[in-house]
Design goal:
The chain contains 20 helices and 14 strands. By secondary structure, it is α/β, with parallel strands linked by helices. Helix 8 runs parallel beside helix 9 and helix 13 packs parallel to helix 15. The chain is globular. The N and C termini lie far apart (68 Å). The C terminus is likely disordered.
Length: 483
């Protein structure tokens, strides 16, 4: 029997995906396994939940994000030295196939399901090519992923995908470059059938936007939630959506009743110039019409926790950004918060512009990829120093995760959702982020008296909400340069 070993390497920093209480399985490897002939014995090593130990194989498949690709290359070399062919796929290898080809025998570019059968045939005929280029698949043809190859007891969360593609094309995001701008849905009954096979109670819906972008997408989501309710599938769902998710009250009610309890929304910034530079036009529209509060409130009142993510360090950000962002987070009562630093992922418009302007810092690839984990500034900022951004990041997190802020936020979550279980869930999520923050190697560098002074002294003490509703229109301190 031919031995196929599939490997999901981990980066060095722990996040929601590789902390034991929130770990969820990779979906790409079970999809690959489903397209592999039955005479293969398949094993999986997921470094997010287990330590790597060398296992013999006839062929090795690896997947990697940018932050974990250096580790993938290391593992690949171990097998290549023994004459065992290695295949790598995923977003990073698809964006930089020539680089990946230096460290692996085969590079699968794009959606690997469309080319994996060909790779296997060529392997068996001893005629593997260096690069295979996949096509964006009709999701009707996706097989049922083979979760039996996973150590499912290692994962508290299961995972499922209902769509691919994103028309938004945000400047810092590589999803569009990998999955395309056309939003593709799976047949709803196929998703339900798969959902009923997942053993875990907690489910991560890995779509970039569960509600989609057009009316037909929203109707699909409503049908999906109605079927979950009708079939009495009792799960706890974590999903992602745009801020527009809060516009449709019927959708929110169906989602909540079906078990959607946490929704991650990419807020990115409260600076309109930054949103424009990020090409985040949906958010920009709602920010300028002051509808953020209403949409966030609608989601929370439906009994769904709001996890807001912010990307700091954009070219239009300055020192005032940290104070205004923190005040917005406080006033809008976001239940769970995630900060990341703007990271120039290969294949994105932001990456391309930085290369053109010669603003990328550490160019010692592939070793430098280890730092592409959204926690470091890896380019020359325009309006701040890297020190400013590091200190501003510390300032916001130190206050947000502080005792009194945590107490007020937890009380707000309980009052709004009227659900103790959800309140505890929000608390645990925030504690995971807090632990990651406090155990970072840079925490001690900034944990000093007076850390607030730099960000609060020059700015008015009025709250973000007061400024947004100020009839005088004097909001220049909030939105520098907006005219």
């Amino acid at each position: 029997m031919t031995r196929l070993l599939l490997i999901n390497p981990s980066n060095s920093v722990k996040g929601l995906g590789n902390i034991s209480t929130t770990s969820f399985p990779p979906l790409n490897l079970p999809y690959i396994a489903a397209l592999t002939p039955s005479h293969y014995r398949i094993e999986v090593i997921d470094e997010n939940v287990e330590q790597f130990q060398y296992r013999d194989a006839d062929i090795v498949g690896l997947t990697a994000y940018t932050a974990s690709v250096h580790r993938a290359y290391e593992i690949s070399q171990l097998y290549r030295e023994k004459g065992i062919p290695t295949v790598i796929g995923g977003i990073h290898a698809s964006m930089l196939p020539d680089e990946a080809a230096q460290y692996c025998d085969v590079v699968a570019v794009g959606e690997a399901e469309s080319i994996w059968p060909e790779i296997i045939r060529d392997f068996e005929n001893n005629c593997l090519k260096k690069i295979y280029r996949g096509e964006m698949m009709d999701l009707k043809n996706l097989p049922l992923p083979r979760r039996d190859i996973l150590k499912n007891n290692y994962y508290k969360w299961g995972s499922i995908q209902t769509s691919r593609g994103c028309p938004n094309n945000c400047s810092f995001c590589s999803v569009t470059a990998f999955n395309g701008r056309r939003f593709r849905r799976r047949p709803v009954h196929s998703v339900i059938e798969e959902l009923e096979t997942i053993p875990q109670k907690y489910i991560m819906i890995t779509d970039d936007n569960i509600a989609g972008y057009h009316k037909e997408d929203t109707e699909w989501a409503k049908s999906f939630f109605r079927l979950i309710i009708e079939k009495r599938i009792r799960k706890f769902f974590f999903a992602q959506a745009s801020i527009q998710f809060g516009e449709d009250i019927e959708l929110l009610q169906l989602a909540s009743k079906a078990g959607v309890k946490v929704i991650l929304v990419g807020m990115e910034s409260v600076n309109p110039k930054t949103l424009k530079s990020y090409n985040k036009n949906i958010n920009l529209k709602h920010l300028k019409t002051n509808s953020y509060d209403t949409l966030i409130s609608n989601i929370r009142k439906a009994g769904i926790l709001f996890l807001g993510t912010f990307v700091i360090g954009g070219d239009e950000d300055d020192i005032s950004t940290f104070y205004t962002t923190l005040n917005f987070i406080r006033s809008s009562h976001i239940d769970i918060l995630q900060f990341t630093k703007l990271t120039p992922l290969p294949g994105t418009a932001f990456w391309n512009s930085l290369k053109k302007e010669n603003r990328l810092l550490d160019l010692k690839y592939p070793e430098a990829w280890k730092d592409y984990r959204f926690t470091k500034i890896l380019f020359k900022p325009k309006k701040m120093t890297i020190q400013d951004i590091d200190e501003g990041n510390f300032y916001m997190k130190k206050i947000y995760f502080g005792f009194w802020e945590t107490l007020k936020r937890t009380f707000s979550t309980l009052v709004t959702t009227k659900n103790l279980m959800l309140t505890l869930t929000a608390y645990k999520f925030n504690q995971s982020y807090k632990k990651s923050f406090k155990t970072s190697d840079r925490y001690s560098l900034f944990d000093k008296p007076g850390f607030k002074k730099k960000f609060e002294t020059p700015l008015p003490e009025k709250s973000f909400r007061d400024k947004r509703s100020d009839p005088s229109g004097k909001h220049e301190a909030l939105f520098p340069g907006e005219n």
